[in-house]
User: Which sequence fits this backbone?
């Protein structure tokens, strides 16, 4: 038997530490060579740390959310053979192979947008897990604890429960005087016995979820945008009946190698036209330097929900792409983002952003500008509404656009002109494609 | 002077503050601690440690006096013992100095930066420190207030001249012939009894009808008996009115309304301690209060985000070990760990002669909380070790729930029982039942056996009585 220490490898040039975002193993797990042990996140990328050897996990070096220095011990494994190596021996000596980092996903450092969706439940993992009982036998629950009585447990059990986010009042104790033992806690964590509750009790438990990884970056980005940028949000309705007819026709007759069209590529093309007239909307405002950088290229960020949270892949140079190209690129990026395979380049560099919640789009939203951009266009749900045409109500497909602007550098008048221009283009879609 | 920016700033280097800083340092937090005095606070400089040193000297001296009077059955005799209080105090100061150095070393080892001076809040994240070399501004992401407590002064008996606080009593160069202690709480009695054992004539003036009012009469009886044996005069239900016009006598109104004039060369006023809430800029940050104390929640958070408070400034019990536990917890919380105050018991010790230890609920308190309790009490008269150390006074008492035998409280009075605080605290914190204590082998011959026997007695089958 030998002990093998895996240290955090050099995960990138100039990076001294990385945030531990996920453990793929827990103490007691047996891992094979190359099995992923953990994921760490730098400000550039998420990196998976594979195991260089076969072994059993003895020790985990950090909690999820902690910053780990490059070279710091991350995992200790019990390995077979290779003679006896005392665990206290210098660690360098027992490192036959370097742990090889695998870059799996470039993290979206800049660029998040307000698009709230019920977030994924976050799993909290116990970090001080004691070895699970080997046998599969279950202990019988103790008698229910009377209401208002403190759960009885040793300090070590209480600490473990707290770190695992478990309310001990819900755990049945099998010890004397219904004392909760380590084994009781193990059983509860294994999802077995949830007892110790009398009928209908107030649930005063609080689950603490660490804000880490992508979520932390989203939080920082949102706070930055909302605290720095005075938003003005302008909501206008757009009659998309003609556009929807065109879209349906194009989809019906499209070539097989072409992507299905959604509304987004039409909007992108309309925005390119509108920006040609108001280039100031396609800009980055460096408020510390007091400089507005107006970009010629229209790089449109598309706010995309992924299992990990909101990211914003960027369709570069929309001004140089036709409708089909915009659609294909948008679809490709969304897929890559959801799979966690988008590169850093694909997730940065936008100059204006679109946010759409599709069928969940609601009537109006108040989009948060993707700092340091100055404008964001939000798409709301299309609905058939009665519209007065001067003599009667007729059913029309209507959609609202909710757009926010940085009011420091965009006046309300200009914002309105910009949205009205997009509205006119979308209502008469042929104009989007007219050569001028 | 250049500003310091840090993750954690601790104001006050008493037991709460320095423990917090050391733990924070261990956890890799960039930590600064500020105190105007030497590290260790009240506890180390003018409280727990120096008083115990003095009490030990008094105990030793009393023994030799006893032998010199040829009164002991041990067959030891000697002649003309004497005590030089100035040397005793110098020895005590040496111990304090060693501990000061020790704490400073621990802080250094944990890579904590120490700034000497008086701290004052500018806002919730910024503190100014008046140091010898000028004004130092410190900015911190989190601040821990650990400013502690100070002796309460009586308006009629302001400190100065013959009127001293506990701090003054620990620095006396000469043994007072007549010592009056105003206030029969644990601080007054610990020091008063120490001086009485060294030879001072002791008078205790207490406004309440009994001494050590936080303990039940059964626990304090051996202490009363001992005070009487030392020739101390107890004026209970009496009020100290002030000094006589000549300034050398204390005016006391007794329980039956008589006016007494008591001669004294020293008057120790020990009527309690108050939180130190002025002098460090509380007004600047306007924290919620709980009476005179700073209000905290179970994470030691104050009403201002990022500002924590620990120790005496946050309320009773004002005990060093409570402050230390809070300090450790707060450091871990600031380091991002999940912690919350969930201690079951804070043991308390009174170093009188004999000593008193309490952990958890007394029988009355448990009954008042609506519990049906079983009480087991075992006297030291039936304990071999107590006999051999001539300390048969006192007992261990255990209080448990009648229904499931969960131990709710443990009390003891007797010579040297302070060391039993460790097993009392452990038993309650671990959630022990009477059977657990009864089934644990307690080494023979020790006073700790009385703990096991008390549990056996509560179960109805004590062996040695």
Assistant:
């Amino acid at each position: 038997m030998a002990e093998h220490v895996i240290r955090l490898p050099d995960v990138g040039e100039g990076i001294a530490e990385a945030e531990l975002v996920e453990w793929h193993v827990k103490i007691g797990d047996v891992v094979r060579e190359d099995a992923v042990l953990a994921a760490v996140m730098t400000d550039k990328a998420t990196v998976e740390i594979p195991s260089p050897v076969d072994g059993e996990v003895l020790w985990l070096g950090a909690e999820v959310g902690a910053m780990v220095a490059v070279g710091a011990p991350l995992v200790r494994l019990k390995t077979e053979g290779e003679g006896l190596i005392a665990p206290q021996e210098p660690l360098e000596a027992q490192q036959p192979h370097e742990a090889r980092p695998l870059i799996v996903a470039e993290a979206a450092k800049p660029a998040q947008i307000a698009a709230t969706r019920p977030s994924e439940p976050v799993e909290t993992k116990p970090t001080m897990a004691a070895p699970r009982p080997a046998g599969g036998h279950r202990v019988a629950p103790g008698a229910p604890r009377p209401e208002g009585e403190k759960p009885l447990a040793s300090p070590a059990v209480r600490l473990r429960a707290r770190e695992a986010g478990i309310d001990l009042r819900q755990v049945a104790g099998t010890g004397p005087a219904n004392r909760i033992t380590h084994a009781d806690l193990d059983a509860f964590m294994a999802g077995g016995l949830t007892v110790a509750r009398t009928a209908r009790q107030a649930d005063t438990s609080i689950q603490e979820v660490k804000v880490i990884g992508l979520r932390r970056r989203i939080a920082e980005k949102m706070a930055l945008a909302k605290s720095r940028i005075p938003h003005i949000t302008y909501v206008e309705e757009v009659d998309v009946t003609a556009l929807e007819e065109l879209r349906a026709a194009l989809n019906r007759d499209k070539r097989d190698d072409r992507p299905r069209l959604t509304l987004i590529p039409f909007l992108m093309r309309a925005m390119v036209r509108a920006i040609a007239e108001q280039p100031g909307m396609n800009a980055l405002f460096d408020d510390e330097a007091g400089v507005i950088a107006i970009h010629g290229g229209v790089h449109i960020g598309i706010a995309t929900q992924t299992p990990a949270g909101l990211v914003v892949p960027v369709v570069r140079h929309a001004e140089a792409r036709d409708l089909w190209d915009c659609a294909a690129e948008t679809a490709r990026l969304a897929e890559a983002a959801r799979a966690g395979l988008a590169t850093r380049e694909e997730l940065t560099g936008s100059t204006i952003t679109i946010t759409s919640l599709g069928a969940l789009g609601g009537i109006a939203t108040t989009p948060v500008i993707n700092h340091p951009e100055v404008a964001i266009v939000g798409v709301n749900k299309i609905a058939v509404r009665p519209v007065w045409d001067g003599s009667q109500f007729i059913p029309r497909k209507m959609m609202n656009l909710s757009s926010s602007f940085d009011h420091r550098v965009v006046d309300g008048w200009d914002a309105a002109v910009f949205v009205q221009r997009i509205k006119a283009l979308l209502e008469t879609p042929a104009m989007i494609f007219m050569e001028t | 002077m250049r500003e310091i920016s840090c993750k954690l700033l601790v104001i006050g280097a008493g037991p709460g503050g320095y423990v917090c800083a050391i733990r924070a340092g261990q956890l890799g937090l960039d930590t600064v601690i500020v105190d105007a005095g030497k590290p260790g606070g009240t506890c180390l400089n003018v409280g727990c440690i120096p008083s115990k040193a003095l009490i030990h000297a008094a105990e030793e001296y009393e023994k030799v006096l006893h032998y010199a009077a040829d009164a002991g059955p041990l067959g030891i005799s000697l002649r003309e013992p004497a005590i030089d209080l100035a040397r005793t105090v110098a020895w005590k100061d040496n111990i304090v100095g060693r501990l000061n150095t020790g704490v400073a070393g621990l802080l250094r080892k944990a890579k904590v930066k120490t700034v000497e001076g008086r701290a004052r809040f500018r806002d919730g994240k910024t503190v100014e420190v008046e140091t010898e070399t000028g004004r130092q501004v410190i900015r911190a992401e989190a601040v821990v207030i650990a400013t502690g407590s100070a002796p309460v002064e009586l308006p009629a008996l302001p400190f100065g001249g013959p009127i001293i606080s506990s701090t003054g009593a620990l620095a006396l160069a000469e043994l007072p012939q007549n010592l009056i202690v105003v206030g029969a709480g644990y601080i007054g009695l610990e020091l008063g009894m120490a001086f009485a054992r060294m030879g001072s004539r002791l008078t205790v003036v207490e406004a309440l009808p009994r001494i050590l009012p936080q303990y039940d009469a059964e626990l304090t009886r051996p202490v009363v008996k001992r005070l009487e044996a030392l020739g101390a005069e107890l004026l209970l239900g009496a009020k100290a009115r002030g000094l006589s016009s000549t300034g050398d006598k204390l005016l006391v109104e007794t329980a039956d309304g008589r006016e007494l004039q008591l001669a004294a060369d020293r008057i120790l006023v020990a009527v309690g301690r108050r939180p130190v809430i002025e002098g460090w800029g509380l007004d600047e940050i306007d924290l919620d209060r709980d009476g005179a104390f700073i209000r905290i929640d179970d994470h030691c958070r104050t009403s201002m985000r990022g500002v924590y408070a620990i120790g005496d400034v946050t309320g009773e019990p004002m005990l060093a070990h409570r402050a230390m536990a809070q300090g450790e917890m707060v450091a871990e919380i600031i380091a991002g760990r999940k912690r919350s105050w969930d201690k079951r018991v804070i043991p308390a010790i009174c170093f009188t002669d004999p000593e008193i230890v309490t952990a958890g609920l007394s029988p009355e308190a448990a009954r008042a909380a609506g519990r049906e309790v079983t009480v087991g009490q075992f006297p030291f008269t039936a304990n071999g070790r107590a006999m051999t150390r001539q300390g048969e006074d006192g007992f261990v008492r255990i209080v448990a729930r009648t229904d499931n035998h969960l131990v709710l409280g443990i009390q003891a009075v007797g010579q040297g029982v302070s060391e039993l605080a460790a097993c009392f605290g452990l038993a309650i914190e671990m959630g022990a039942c009477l059977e657990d204590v009864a089934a644990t082998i307690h080494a023979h011959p020790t006073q700790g056996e009385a703990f096991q026997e008390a549990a056996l007695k509560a179960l109805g089958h004590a062996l040695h009585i």
Notes: Chain B has a mean pLDDT of 95. The first helix of chain B runs from residue 15 to 26. Chain B has 14 helices and 24 strands.
